[in-house]
Amino acid sequence: MNFCPGSLINKLVLLSAIVLVALRLSTVAIPAEPAGRSLAPPGILPTAEIARRVSHRHRGVVTEIALEVEKGSLVYEVEANGADGKKHEYLLDPVSGKLLAEKTIGVVAGSAGE
Hints:
Blueprint: H1 8-26, E1 27-28, H2 47-58, E2 60-70, E3 73-82, E4 86-92, E5 99-107
Antiparallel strand pairs: 1-2, 2-3, 3-4, 4-5
């Protein structure tokens, strides 16, 4: 098959590739990090440090961390079970660790508030 820049098939193939790449980059989950080794991209705080900060500052147990793109910016989305019996979601800057947003997203299963 010859490549013809204006052909409909070539445009569809290119569009499909772009969509697949965009979907893949929209949520980047970073797996648990081996001791002493960060899997986070350079300049990004490791997930272990983000979990430590959230646990310490908000008195909760981190249940999920994902590096995501929100409104064109890279953020850590962290879910945690709080000491208050509620589930919380936090958005943190991945470079500074600064809290950008937080909200209550539910009640911890088995807690008194359920």
